[in-house]
Amino acid sequence: MNKAIIFDLDGVIVDTAKYHYLAWRKIALDLGFDFSEVQNEMLKGVSRVQSLEFLLESGNIQLPQARKDELLHAKNQHYLSLISDMDASEMLEGIPQLLQDLRQHQVPFALGSASKNARLILDSLNLTDWFTAIVDGNEVTQAKPDPEVFLIAAQKLGYKPEDCIVVEDSQAGIQAANAVGMTSVGIGSKEVLYESQFLLENTAQLTFEFLKEL
Ligand code: BG6
Ligand code: MG
Question: Range of 107's domain?
Answer without folding.
Answer: 4-15+87-213
